From TrEMBL:
<feature type="domain" description="Adenylosuccinate lyase PurB C-terminal">
    <location>
        <begin position="329"/>
        <end position="449"/>
    </location>
</feature>
<dbReference type="GO" id="GO:0044208">
    <property type="term" value="P:'de novo' AMP biosynthetic process"/>
</dbReference>
<dbReference type="InterPro" id="IPR013539">
    <property type="entry name" value="PurB_C"/>
</dbReference>
<dbReference type="Pfam" id="PF00206">
    <property type="entry name" value="Lyase_1"/>
</dbReference>
<comment type="similarity">
    <text>Belongs to the lyase 1 family. Adenylosuccinate lyase subfamily.</text>
</comment>
<dbReference type="InterPro" id="IPR022761">
    <property type="entry name" value="Fumarate_lyase_N"/>
</dbReference>
<dbReference type="InterPro" id="IPR000362">
    <property type="entry name" value="Fumarate_lyase_fam"/>
</dbReference>
<comment type="pathway">
    <text>Purine metabolism; AMP biosynthesis via de novo pathway; AMP from IMP: step 2/2.</text>
</comment>
<dbReference type="InterPro" id="IPR024083">
    <property type="entry name" value="Fumarase/histidase_N"/>
</dbReference>
<dbReference type="InterPro" id="IPR020557">
    <property type="entry name" value="Fumarate_lyase_CS"/>
</dbReference>
<comment type="pathway">
    <text>Purine metabolism; IMP biosynthesis via de novo pathway; 5-amino-1-(5-phospho-D-ribosyl)imidazole-4-carboxamide from 5-amino-1-(5-phospho-D-ribosyl)imidazole-4-carboxylate: step 2/2.</text>
</comment>
<keyword id="KW-0658">Purine biosynthesis</keyword>
<dbReference type="InterPro" id="IPR008948">
    <property type="entry name" value="L-Aspartase-like"/>
</dbReference>
<dbReference type="InterPro" id="IPR047136">
    <property type="entry name" value="PurB_bact"/>
</dbReference>
<dbReference type="GO" id="GO:0004018">
    <property type="term" value="F:N6-(1,2-dicarboxyethyl)AMP AMP-lyase (fumarate-forming) activity"/>
</dbReference>
<keyword id="KW-0456">Lyase</keyword>
<dbReference type="GO" id="GO:0006189">
    <property type="term" value="P:'de novo' IMP biosynthetic process"/>
</dbReference>
Length: 463
């Protein structure tokens, strides 16, 4: 084993890299450094645009060259930073030196001291994390979730009228429709999308202890809180005016808690679909060339949903840990958050991988109407609810003198399998009105689905 060439330690960077590679543009170390360069460059331009400290606005071609430097950040810059950080042992200082080198290359040495001006490392870092996490959520994770919701919505519509024996405690219960059961997950997930879209991505830019002390020492005529707010909001973030050295990370805890909640809804979806497959309500569509078991040729395993379960659990473990850890920092700051935040991408990556598996799994199943119908036909006892409820209504209306309708149906049906003839005989012997009797005799398990189909009208519009 010692002879292996360097290998990725995480399956997200190896076996499953194709499903999560989008996140590498933002939540990787390189993505973070690209954002850091972007923030440093933007701050330089902000200061010179306002002619602070005797500077002058840069010519447009120089501004564009700096913007392009940040925008086109790539392998050459990654390598240069690694070389510099090996000496500085400080990642943000290495970024500062990289920007200074670019200024020198562009003949802008006169403004070199405005690089990282009045900034603590966390001023750059918190804004960079705000930018990268926002882009990961809105540019990669939410679009993948929306694909899953769209597929679920399509299947809910497809099966909205397909009767299905419901299961409570795993036992036969009042029938529903397959489409309505899927629609429940659409509704739950759309609520989470709405809440996640409302999360604020906060940023601070106020110096070593959040007091603007160095800013005021350099120039006490500038309204630095106003400048800070203008700069932070120009990055697409919400300004946080009251912080210690670090931005307090509450927005991250809120976001990760909501994503974990979404993960858990998806986990419930995966376990339900797995169960429907196991009892035959869904048939799996064999994939050409695929193998289900190394020894049992007949097997088609629900691996997409099992894989999703595992990855959702891993994602929640990481995101829950981040949410709990990041809201605490000793006094002005400690570096616990620095180590923890480097795993944001891992938390999102496992969730993205789960979404990919769920989407693929949903595309590889099809309902089995014949089995659904047979299951309903074999469980006429589920109509006991309808019969005892009608009797109670008849008693209240004065058309029946039956005592304790529930007990009568319990005696007939509890723990038993009865058929259409048994129920018809029972109904015909009831002391109820003719209309009620006719309604009950017309009932079948497949027809006893209430408003299941109509309830899909309450689904929100796609987010």
């Amino acid at each position: 084993m010692s002879n292996l060439p360097p290998q990725p330690l995480s399956p997200l960077d190896g076996r499953y890299s194709g499903a999560v590679s989008e996140l590498g543009n933002t939540l990787s170390e390189a993505g973070l450094n690209k954002a850091r360069v972007h923030v440093e460059v933007k701050w330089l331009i902000y200061l010179t645009d306002r002619s602070l400290f005797g500077s002058s606005p840069l010519p447009e071609d120089k501004k564009e060259a700096l913007r392009a430097f940040a925008r086109d950040f790539g392998q050459a810059e990654i390598d240069a930073l690694a070389k510099t950080e090996a000496v500085t042992r400080h990642d943000v200082k290495a970024v500062e030196y990289l920007v200074r080198e670019k200024l020198s290359e562009l003949g802008l040495d006169s403004i070199a001291e405005l690089t990282h001006f009045a900034c603590t490392s966390e001023d750059i870092n918190n804004l960079s994390y705000g930018i990268t996490v926002r882009e990961a959520v809105h540019g990669a994770w939410l679009p993948r979730l929306r694909l899953v919701i769209a597929e679920l919505r399509a299947q809910a519509e497809k099966y909205r009228d397909l009767p299905m024996l419901a299961r409570t405690h795993g036992q036969p219960a009042t029938p529903t429709t397959l489409g309505k059961e899927i629609a429940v997950f659409v509704y739950r997930l759309e609520r989470q999308v709405d809440q996640i879209q409302q999360v604020e991505f906060l940023g601070k830019f106020s110096g070593a202890t959040g007091t603007f002390a160095a800013h005021i020492a350099a120039d006490n005529t500038v309204n630095w809180p106003e400048a800070s707010e203008e700069f932070v909001t120009s990055l697409g973030l919400t300004w946080n005016p009251l912080t210690t050295q670090i931005e307090s990370h509450d927005w991250q805890a809120e976001l990760y808690a909501r994503i974990s909640h979404t993960n858990r809804i998806l986990h419930n979806l995966a376990t339900d679909i797995w169960t429907y497959i196991s009892i035959g309500y869904f048939r799996q569509i064999p994939v050409a060339g695929a193998t289900g078991s190394s020894t049992m040729p007949h097997k088609v395993n629900p691996i997409r949903f099992e894989n999703a379960e595992a990855n959702l659990e891993l994602s929640c473990a990481i995101l829950d840990s981040l949410a709990a850890t990041l809201v605490t920092s000793r006094l002005q700051r400690d570096l616990t958050d620095s180590s923890a935040q480097r795993n944001i991408g891992v938390g999102f990556g496992h969730s993205m991988l789960a979404l990919d598996n769920i989407l693929r799994g949903l595309g590889e199943i099809d309902a089995a109407p014949d089995l659904l119908a047979a299951d309903l036909e074999g469980n006429w006892e589920v109509l006991g609810e309808a019969i005892q409820t009608v009797i109670r209504a008849e008693v209240t209306a004065g058309r029946s003198t039956i005592k304790d309708p529930y007990a009568a149906l319990k005696e007939l049906t509890r723990g038993k399998r009865i058929g259409a003839a048994d129920l018809a005989e029972f109904v015909n012997g009831l002391d109820i009105g003719d209309d009620a009797r006719a309604r009950l005799l017309a009932l079948t398990p497949a027809g006893y689905v209430g408003l299941a189909s109509e309830l899909l009208e309450f689904l929100p519009e796609a987010g």
